[in-house]
Amino acid sequence: MIIGLVGLGLIGGSYAKAIKKYTDHTVYGFNRSVGVIRQAQEAGVIDGVLDDGNIGNCDMVIISIYPTDAIEFILSHASRFKKGAVITDACGTKRRICSEVEKASMDNGFYFIGGHPMAGIEKSGFEASFPEMFGDASLILTPYQWTPQEAVDVTADLARELGFGKVKISNPQEHDEMISYTSQLPHVLSCAFIGSELAEKFDGFSAGSFQDMARVAKLNEVMWSELFIENREYLCREIDGMLERLSQLSTQIRLADREKLRESLRKSRETKERIDGK
Hints:
Layout: E1 2-6, H1 10-22, E2 26-30, H2 34-42, E3 48-49, E4 60-63, H3 67-77, E5 86-89, H4 95-108, E6 111-118, E7 138-142, H5 149-161, E8 166-169, H6 172-194, H7 208-214, H8 221-230, H9 232-254, H10 258-276
Parallel strand pairs: 1-2, 1-4, 2-3, 4-5, 5-6, 7-8
Antiparallel strand pairs: 6-7
Helix pairs in contact: 3-4, 6-9
Family: Belongs to the prephenate/arogenate dehydrogenase family.
InterPro entries: 6-PGluconate_DH-like_C_sf, NAD(P)-bd_dom_sf, PDH_C, PDH_N, Preph/Arog_dehydrog, Prephen_DH
Keywords: Oxidoreductase
């Protein structure tokens, strides 16, 4: 299979390195930075530069750039994609991109399948990418109802070749609702947590819980602000729910209401134990 990669940052670079390490597929890569393309070539993880001349030869194109840029790329290259090719992405929200490229997909004969690899680290760029990035991670796919099963299977098969531990088939609405809680809300909370004036004085006073809470505040503010705003309906609902639960805990602590506080903490512990048991 010939695979085109658009964007060779943390995720796109990891795709390139994983494909070359674990498969025999041919890889063409594109990045706005010529320096990054040169790095990828020197590392031997792309077989050539992806351009308008060869993108039509690709059986699959994986787009790992910001959501707005990804939409623009797909629409501007729609007529160049190979008929029957699978075009997928790595964006953190799915409703907008799946909605805006569906017509182009149908009109031009390619199959767009929304994708979201649930993997990442607190660094960015090609230098930080590595082939084991996707090991045991989940890949969420959001195909259209009319997408052929064969196209979904090809995408899922490649994911398993690259080490993904699970392929979750979903839809754009379910994806964005769940991601608002499992991914975006933790990033919001981490940013709020590290905003305390005590954060600068943590040395010697912290253990694992501080690191757990603060870890994902080290984020790419350009990308995450776009994701937050695109998914603001679901995300703000989760933030409001969190504020309500925090207010309840704050009241219980302020009033020294041991019975209600213990009950709240017990319910939280039991929920976590129930989740861990799944």
